[in-house]
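Aim 2, interim progress: modelling of the zinc ion-bound target.
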Amino acid sequence: MQVNGDRLWADLMALAQIGAGAAGGNNRMALTDADRDAKALFAHWCREAGLAVSVDGLGNTFARLEGREPSLPPVFAGSHLDTQESGGRFDGPLGVLAALEALRAITEAGIVPRRPVEVVNWTNEEGARFSPGLMGSAAFAGTLPLDRAHAVADRAGRTVGAELARLGWNGAAPMGGRPVDAYFELHIEQGPLLEAAGVTIGAVTQSCHSAFTDAVCHGETSHIQSTPMPQRRNALWGAARLIDAIERTGFAHAPDGTASAVVIDAWPNNRIVLPSRAGFSYGVMHLEEDGLAAMVAAIDASAEAIAAETGLRFETVLRRVRRPFHTRRRRSANSAPTARTGWRPARSRRRWPAPPDRSAPMGRKAAVRLLRLRRPQHGVPLQHAMGARAERHGLATRLLRIARAHVGAYAARKAREAERQGSRAR
Ligand SMILES: [Zn+2]
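Predicted structure of the complex, ligand included:
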């Protein structure tokens, strides 16, 4: 059985027409008109493929292929169709549309799987417009109450709940509360490592310990022309100094640790007034828990030192610490297909204890998404990372085959393009 690589490619390119972004990528942030149109196109394709589509109260969309034993917990496969402002064409859509293509191939081959299989499009995985990200999957997994998700507002004050209602994607399906047998997600590489190593595909074996912090530097407004330097309490200066310290902490702990500030919001943000307030956000990641703790402590110490020196004050508004995802490697899809195909995992690290709660695969799924490395997705070649559990249905092997077919089709198309360009050049 093989997927139709051309059809998958055509779907990816059709979807990329919705929400034009920078450099040929996409800007399709969650619950914008473009996101609605992407959701609608996906649902249309799913119905066309004979799948039963349902939508829950966050707009999470499930397209179900019924199994021979419908009462068994389903196998999930999917990803997200929303993007960052600077999103690429493949981050998210590949996982959703490859899963759909896999179900088309299964259906066309006349196969009825034992368990139901559902393609999922999670709402607001990216968190670009509404924070936190992983919102749809977190609510499904029961780690984020639905009413709290609905109350989240963007910078313009529009809430998730209001936008869902405006777009007509506030569905009637119950939020989560049903067991899932396994979850698969095909994803492009989010960093440069596989590409640099010349590796086509890898299985995600773990993510990082991380701490995401929203902080504010407090100063005092005063006139930029008339306030003597010793009396100035410029919050922007304090934030800038700490932001520098954060980046330096990242460099000091690389490659296992990383840290960067990513947001700054000064008030009143005009040319005449020294700002009294500079809000900023930063993320710290490390493979080891102790490493993360050391980095966070170093940054906090820097804040104290800068505050003592400048008379400014730092406030930590919110700090979200997340534990990493680790597959149980003996049972992950990693080992068997890797041995057969010669593909290596994205990163081979030491063994980790299994997570304590084995009954919540969706929680671990949310953690998979944390593996994102920080790099814009423009022009990222079609290399894939894949997180998987439980190969016992053979679906992992099937998805790996699909990925291989897809990568093969991509390589062939690239070769054809290069040939055409070569003949044009001659
Ligand atoms: Zn993604």
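The CA atoms of residues 25 and 301 lie 40 Å apart. The first strand starts at residue 52 and ends at 55.
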